[in-house]
Each structure stands twice: as structure tokens, then as C-alpha cells.
TrEMBL record:
<protein>
    <recommendedName>
        <fullName>DUF1963 domain-containing protein</fullName>
    </recommendedName>
</protein>
Length: 220
């Protein structure tokens, strides 16, 4: 198993944490599995920061003896930015029809489409999965549709609205596109996993069930 992401409740208090826990850790087995998703196999742990801090930390963590390069994250940090996201493929078809004129007006006025401005495919906690294929929300065994917990995706924005300002490279020659990354910078951003053809692993939970069941989808 390799560590994929660790989030603290103090950074993302909107996420569900079981009582007594304040750290969310996602690990996965970095091989391609012969299950429905056909990708790395994630495992989610909710822990207490105090207990983790009191424990021993290995100075030389073991590396898996075999792994798929596309699911093997390189060490990196996250700097969460809070944003309001709107649905992409989860928008009902008739609503897309009704809003199409307003979408055109937005694109005319701001030079970016609704999808570029209001939805994002990058790694995120909360919001909507950045479905590349048709939405495939899992149901919990209690009958409830599960909530999107977080997504780990291969796509990192290198320009435009979602480009992290602290990674800003030289100014773009086309000012309307906003800041653009220096390519040597882009190559160093994030976990570096290709995840198939720039796909993503989406994790879902049911906070209504006491044992907080979770599952995942792989989209590519
Ligand atoms: Zn495995
Ligand atoms: Zn449930």
C-alpha cells in the first residue's frame, strides 16, 4: 500500500469524520486490480491526529516491491483552496437545455464556458466527481446514494481559472487566458500519476451509516 492523500478536519471541516477522528488518510495498492473499477485499490482510514502524533513514525517507510507507474504517487503536498463547484455531467439534461442560452451569454461575457468556470476535473475534496464518462454514483447498502468524498485525478490545471496562483509562471502572451504555467514548473506539480489516459479515482462514503462505508469508481 502507498500513501495517496492525508487531510485534516481543520483544513476541510465540511468532510464527514467519524466521532473521535480528525485525520483522513487514503492509501491504495498501486496495482491494477481485476475488479469492476480495474485500477488501484484504495483503502480509507479515519484516525485521530493526537494518536498518530504520539505513535512512532518510520524513518524509512517500505516501498512496494511492485507497482504500476500510473498509480504510484510521488511525494507532494496539498494547499487546499475553498471553491464553490457546480455540477458538470450531473446536471440534468433538461436543465442543460433550459440554461444553454445563459451558458452562451457567460461564454460571450467572460471568454470561458460554464464548464471551464464552474466545474473542475482536478483532485478535490467534496464537490462533484469530474466524470469523464457517464455519472455512476454508488448506492450504499442502506439504500442511500453515497456522497462524493474526494477525487484523485491526473488532471492539474496549467492555466485559467483553476490554476494555483502560487505556482504562477511567466505571464501568458494572451492576457485573456490568465496566468499560465512555466512547463518546467508544471512537470513538478502534484502527484505525477497518469492514471490511464488522465483519469481519476473517485471515493464515495455514506455518512448516514455508523461504520462510514466507502467505495470507489475509476473513470478514464
Ligand atoms: Zn492489490
Ligand atoms: Zn449507508
Amino acid at each position: 500500500m502507498v500513501p495517496v492523500v492525508q487531510l485534516f478536519a481543520r483544513d476541510v471541516p465540511e468532510l464527514p469524520f467519524p466521532a473521535g477522528t480528525d485525520v483522513l488518510q487514503v492509501l491504495w495498492c498501486p496495482l491494477i486490480h481485476n475488479d469492476e473499477a480495474g485500477a488501484a485499490l484504495p483503502k480509507v482510514y479515519w484516525r485521530s491526529e493526537q494518536t498518530v502524533a504520539e505513535g512512532r513514525v518510520l524513518s524509512d517507510p517500505p516501498a512496494p516491491y511492485e507497482h504500476e507507474e500510473e498509480f504510484m504517487p510521488r511525494p507532494c503536498t496539498v494547499t487546499p483552496t475553498r471553491a464553490v463547484e457546480y455540477p458538470n455531467r450531473d446536471l440534468p439534461g433538461d436543465l442543460v437545455q433550459n440554461l444553454s442560452q445563459r451558458f452562451d451569454e457567460i461564454e460571450e461575457a467572460f471568454g470561458s464556458s460554464y464548464y471551464e468556470m464552474a466545474t473542475t476535473a482536478q483532485s478535490k475534496a467534496g464537490g462533484y466527481p469530474g466524470w469523464l464518462q457517464q455519472p455512476d454514483w454508488p448506492d450504499c447498502h442502506c439504500g442511500r446514494r453515497m456522497d462524493h468524498l474526494l477525487s484523485i485525478t491526473a488532471t492539474e490545471p496549467v492555466e485559467g481559472r483553476w490554476f494555483p496562483l502560487d505556482e504562477k509562471g511567466p505571464a501568458s502572451p494572451d492576457a485573456s487566458r490568465g496566468p499560465m504555467a512555466d512547463h518546467t514548473v508544471v512537470d513538478t506539480i502534484g502527484h505525477g500519476m497518469a492514471m490511464g489516459d488522465l483519469g481519476g479515482v473517485y471515493l464515495f462514503v455514506c455518512p448516514a451509516c455508523p461504520d462510514m462505508p466507502y467505495t470507489h469508481r475509476y473513470d478514464c
